[in-house]
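Fold Annotation — chain and its backbone

Encoding — discrete vocabulary of local shapes
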Amino acid sequence: MKPASVGFQCPDCVKAGSKSLRPVKAAYGGRVRQVPYVTYGLIAINVIMLVVTTRAGGSLLGGTPVSDLFAKLALRPCPSVPGGSCQGGVAQGDYYRLLTSMFLHFGIIHLALNMYSLYLLGPTLEQAFGQVRFGATYLLAGLGGAALSYALGDVNELGAGASGAVFGLFGAFYVLGRKRRLDVSSITVTIAINLYFSFQFSGYIDWRAHVGGLLTGAAVGWVVVYSPDTRQRTAYQAGGMLLAAAVVVAVVAARTAQLA
């Protein structure tokens, strides 16, 4: 028997009653659960990738050299060879690097900083956006950051990290706060400080990924929270996300044409 507010209930009765309950809806559409599975899943993937790339020959504390696996999955626009032509990299068709580089980190400190931010912001946004919309916001922000890094970065530079996606969550969190008329001074200061350090230490930090992720995340977050609350809301949100994806593709295509 299962304890209830009035006595006890049989397990089959509880199970039957649970089936009749409607799934909980997020504030802006989509399903949501009490446990932020998407947030925890993203953290787990990043941790696993650090373990895998470290075991393949990388350093747990970061720095160089990196493992061959890391180098194959990281963001590298167009590594040049004698003669000035590209050999490998995104410009030669390795577009998967735009995605895989989001789950790589230069050591455990780099990972810890990004995952701590994801742990703080993820559950709130996942609760508000729903699992699918939150996951899409994270991925699009990461791709937006990777795209701007590819477009403006050095052709031989090796880039990696979830910071573009995390900055996207900063942007989405700011938009959500404004929508709900909350005090956004804390997130504004956080964004400003992180951008300051991004530009101040641009030799070590990829400010392009941070700016690209921030802008993409804010744009997608705006689409999610400001789409009209009608039957067509999901269509509006999906259309806005597709438009953001199209912009990312256009930026990547323009840079690839320039390097070809």
User: Anything to note?
Assistant: The first strand starts at residue 2 and ends at 3.
